[in-house]
Amino acid sequence: MTDGDMRYGRCGVCGGGEVYRGEYVAQAGLRRTGAGKFGSRQPVFDAYICAACGHTQLHVQLDEKMSSYVRNKLDRIPPQKSIAAGGGT
After folding, report:
1. Region 23-38 average pLDDT
2. What pTM was computed for the model?
């Protein structure tokens, strides 16, 4: 497997090798959880979609300004060995 990174052309969920790439432009913008509509940035993501199971992965196209925004405005998730129960999708 590819450790779940679909940029290598294999789906980390079903193992399928039919992965396609497109771009996703966030219309509402990227913002801190619960921040409402203010303070959002409109990023462009590389979207990787598995045609076999529909699993999708998004990778933001970072420049210095977007990287700074992410570091200063969003909540950081520290590295963990596993996701705690009820910790997300």
Report:
1. 69
2. 0.66
